[in-house]
Design a protein that fits this description.
Length: about 60
């Protein structure tokens, strides 16, 4: 994935929410985070379907910060 747009488009249609509405806050856990687009798209979907706050937690990062 050469740029941010390609990284975001790579997730198009991949994630979905099965339980609607989602009550309360959500802890979103990912093992390895690179571009952070997975967190952004997943959090948007969860909020769109009625969840409360979304708290992302990455166990490891491919970036230095």
């Amino acid at each position: 994935m050469a740029n941010s747009l390609q990284q975001a488009l790579n997730l198009d249609g991949v994630l979905e929410v099965h339980e609607k509405p989602l009550p309360g806050s959500v802890l979103l856990v990912d093992d390895i985070v690179g571009s952070r687009w997975t967190f952004a798209v997943a959090a948007w979907l969860l909020r769109h379907y009625g969840s409360g706050e979304v708290w992302p937690l990455a166990l490891s990062s491919l970036r230095g910060s």
